[in-house]
Design goal:
- There is one protein chain.
- The protein is α/β, with parallel strands linked by helices.
- It has two domains: 134 residues, Ribonuclease Z/Hydroxyacylglutathione hydrolase-like (Metallo-beta-lactamase, Chain A, 4-Layer Sandwich), CATH 3.60.15; 87 residues, Rossmann fold (3-Layer(aba) Sandwich).
- The protein is built from five helices and 15 strands.
- The strands form three sheets. Strands 1-2-3-4-5-6 form a six-stranded mixed beta sheet.
- The longest helix has 14 residues.
- The termini are far apart.
- The structure holds zinc ion.
- The site of zinc ion has 4 residues, from loops.
Length: 240
């Protein structure tokens, strides 16, 4: 069996696959990139050719403009794409819309580059899909045991309890525009909250993209009034 170090190598641009001649989530512009998901620390503009899920390509176009790369190729989940000697398959990572693990198969080795992932259920994207592999390259942003995340439904229940207790107040929830905001919206809907949710202006294009991809977000409106507490009894979602 060939060696892991022949398949993957660290370079100043980021993780590089020599036999496939592509980088994964490179931090600088490269000729050929595989992008795991649309967050800006993974998806950057200026690459030659980008391979990603259709949803990730749409997110990049919405954020950077249609000319974010010289060429793009959409690989839906599970579709095998060949790059020189390497087969690349993108499978769900459970992180945000379109997020994928990159599964590389070469000379009997299967390597999985996780990208950001989570194994909990998320109503806005398909569940993390485990893939049997010889090498797993894992993101571990919250990997330390000190991070203990409470149950999401319990947190939403706390928020709704507070909204009911303090109807004269506006409840402002901090959430990143791509992923977290839509997850909170969906969790609120699952908890039975059907009122209009008010959104910071930065959320609009990502919400529209999720809705275009079949994620039901319910009634949304821009939170345009700058007066403090201008929306008593309402929930406002804004970047932290
Ligand atoms: Zn991410």
């Amino acid at each position: 069996m060939a060696g892991f170090r022949q398949l993957l190598r660290n370079t100043p641009e980021g993780l590089y696959c020599p036999p496939g001649d592509f980088h994964i989530d490179p931090v600088r512009p490269v000729a050929r990139a595989v992008i795991t998901h649309g967050h800006s620390d993974h998806a950057r503009s200026g690459h030659g050719a980008v391979l990603a899920t259709p949803q990730t390509l749409a997110i990049m176009a919405a954020r950077y403009g249609a000319d974010f790369a010289a060429a793009t190729e959409a690989a839906p989940y599970g579709q095998r794409v060949t790059r020189n000697e390497v087969d690349v398959t993108l499978v769900p990572a459970g992180h945000v819309l379109g997020s994928a693990q990159a599964v590389l198969r070469w000379k009997g080795i299967t390597a999985v580059i996780s990208g950001d992932y989570k194994r909990r259920r998320d109503p806005t994207c398909p569940l993390f899909e485990p893939v049997a592999c010889n090498l797993f390259v894992s993101e571990a942003t919250f990997g330390l045991p000190v991070f203990r995340f409470p149950d999401a439904a319990d947190e939403v229940a706390k928020l709704l309890k507070s909204v009911a207790l303090f109807p004269e107040r506006t409840h402002l929830v901090g959430a990143y525009a791509l992923g977290k905001a839509q997850r909170i919206i969906c969790l609120l809907r699952e908890a039975g909250y059907s009122k209009t949710l008010y959104m910071h202006g930065a959320m609009g294009s990502m919400n529209a993209l999720y809705q275009a991809n079949g994620v039901e977000l319910g009634s949304l409106a821009p939170a345009t009034d700058e007066k403090r507490n201008a929306l008593p009894g309402e929930i406002v979602i804004a970047p932290p």
